[in-house]
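Supplementary Note 2. Why include the ligand at all?

Several targets in our set were suspected to adopt different conformations when bound, so apo predictions alone were not considered sufficient. For every target with a known small-molecule partner we therefore ran a joint prediction. The input for zinc ion is given below.
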Amino acid sequence: MRWFLVGLVALGGCLVPSLGAAAPIRPFSTVLLDPGHGGTDNGGMSRPLSGGRLLEKDLALDTARRVAQLLRARGFHVVMTRTDDRFVDLDERVRVANRLGPGAVAVSIHYNATGDRSIRGAETFFWHADSHGLATRIDRNLEAVVGGSGRGLVRRRLRLTRNPTIPAVLVECAYLTNAREARLVAQPQARERIAQAIADGIVEEARFGDEGIAAVPEIWAPLSRGSEVRKVSKQSRKKRHRKRHVSASIERVDRAKPFLAQAFLAASFVPR
Ligand SMILES: [Zn+2]
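The joint prediction is reproduced in token form.
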């Protein structure tokens, strides 16, 4: 077994489950809301609708503002990585999260896009064990509004899920490339319901912690880096696996670089 683990470290990218139960989430009263993309980085986009194309960066900011308002009304201290249409580097977003320190959680808000227009539904990503409860609660609330994708809650090593030192979750509210969901999220009322679902998940986690949610083991993995994204993008272009949502490419890092130790994940963790 020991040699098997060493082999995984050498070959698979150093993913090894740590021993012991996951630590429960610490109480928090500060929430970092991170609207994805911005400025020159549009993120994903819809096909043209009657009012033009929907840009992910605009919907993410609008939704985050709505979540901020709902959380402030509930007494939370809310910090945002951007409040207007500007580019913010992913590592800077992580630095903002880490400066907040204990007593805070981070929620990154995105809308998804892909070449397959039939794919739809909300997805919520987390990496660390202390983020599982928050991700679960947000995902449950969001799926009740948008509908499930069949993937729902996903454990994936992204810069905004792996690198923050505080619990961190990345939400893909809906698929802009799915006609039904694009029409839905074009409506401000629908974005308000989505914001309410995200806020409800955060409020529930602040109130109940991880109570009633199955613990998952912490998994060690190296920090997620921008250089991996560029490498992955190049490989993906070669394979002609085109995905429209390429500008910040945070969603693709681990999908395109399967670690051997994912076998451990499959054996030890069912994301439901
Ligand atoms: Zn995005």
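Strands lie at 16-17, 30-35, 77-80, 104-112, 122-126, 148-155, 168-175, 219-220. The mean pLDDT is 82. Comparable summaries for the other entries are listed in the accompanying table.
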